[in-house]
Amino acid sequence: MSAFLDACRQVVGAQYLLTDADALAPYLVERRGNLSGKACAVARPGSSAEVAQLVRLCHQYRVPVVPQGGNTGLVLGSIPDDSGTALLLSLRRLNRIRDIDTVNDTITVDAGCILEHVQQAAADADRLFPLSLAAEGSCTIGGNLSSNAGGTAVLRYGNARELCLGLEVVTPQGELWDGLRGLRKDNTGYDLRDLYIGAEGTLGIITGAVLKLHPRPRAVRTALLALPTPDHALQLLTLTRRHCGAALTGFELMSAFCMELVHRHFPDMQSPFAMPHAQYALLELYDHESEQHATALLETLIGTALDEQTVADAVVATSLAQSAALWQWRECIPLAQAAEGRNIKHDISLPISRIADFIRVTDEALQQAFPGVRLVTFGHLGDGNLHYNVAPPADAGADFFMHQAAINRIVHDNVHAFDGSISAEHGIGALKREELLRYKSPLELQLMSRIKQALDPLNLMNPGKLL
């Protein structure tokens, strides 16, 4: 191992190869502080070439390598196991904006670029990079692509996969594949780009990407609407699509308990409604015509929804500050959950048409099995992604979490029964690996294993994750 570490120092320099326990610690603990791993060292390369050299050394010395971006993941995808044999490869120094092409509407970036910095670089060029999620101030593009991140604008712009045109990747053998092509049409064989996106670093290490840019909207309109049931939320989504078309950018669902939690832990936030309602939909329009056109679209939509009794009440933001205040209700839900205490999280996706039925059936099943559980249901209704989280009864003790496996089984079995997925945007990592074996077909698992074996026969790339 000492010969391997000496060789790594020659590549990155002694200051960028960390072996001291205190220096390693921040890289080895997952975001919520619940679990940690061990590593022989943390390497912090400063270029794609250095990444390739390090991976070649890992291949030569048979050392597992765990790539890490901002370490904001929620499924233990960027944390090594506790063997201490792996090299953790941090990509945070790969943080250059390489190029912006406003005619081709692309931006080429290093994988270690913080998502928020890419958004700002696009805005500085009068363009929009629409990927947006809670961790955007610390997550990296490489991590976003490795997990095929979603967020609040998937309804209109798609997941990270849809926002990427080309990649630069280091293979498990340490070769550097330059696929940084800003082409929207390239029908020349297998799509290697899509193979690496969503692979969670198990097939190679993404070091750079060409990303799509979009025109900045001329107007943004935000509204919070109160609804009686999730069925009404689906009716509203259908109505909004009919009235607003492509202008509909975000459509978020929040239950009454979500709003209650936020107010409890952020008492300065007062509900914009005079009385509580069972469900709330936060919707946002991006309009490319004018402020007046955006306002007219939203006013017509809300008027129709009220007339048809699809919604019970509505609040419309009339300024950027008011829009931010409405979004704060959605963004504070995870913070309020953390302040309330531990809960059992599920990142699931379902056919949009079946979401209301899933909520109804699964709520009932959980209440029968564990009376008094509190269900924190929110998420990106417009693309079928729910964060269906289970909080213990108010008077429950710590032993409630002994039932986590049983609760997961109820939720995930129902997800499967409703033709959904147990992971919508967080990935599989190590946390859901065993669950994947239960719900993927044997053939799917075989095909995935064959790809892994073909590209990484030594199983050195992020071992123990996904497969």
TrEMBL record:
It comes from the Bacteria. One of its GO terms (molecular function) is catalytic activity. Keywords: FAD, Flavoprotein. InterPro entries: FAD-bd_oxidored_4_C, FAD-bd_PCMH, FAD-bd_PCMH-like_sf, FAD-bd_PCMH_sub1, FAD-bd_PCMH_sub2, FAD-linked_Oxase-like_C, FAD-oxidored/transferase_4, Oxid_FAD_bind_N. Transmembrane segments: none annotated. Its cofactor is FAD. Pfam families: FAD-oxidase_C (PF02913), FAD_binding_4 (PF01565). SUPFAM superfamilies: FAD-binding/transporter-associated domain-like, FAD-linked oxidases, C-terminal domain. Residues 35-216 form the FAD-binding PCMH-type domain. GO terms for biological process: respiratory electron transport chain. PANTHER family: BLL6224 PROTEIN, D-2-HYDROXYGLUTARATE DEHYDROGENASE, MITOCHONDRIAL. Belongs to the FAD-binding oxidoreductase/transferase type 4 family. This is D-2-hydroxyacid dehydrogenase. It comes from Oxalicibacterium flavum.
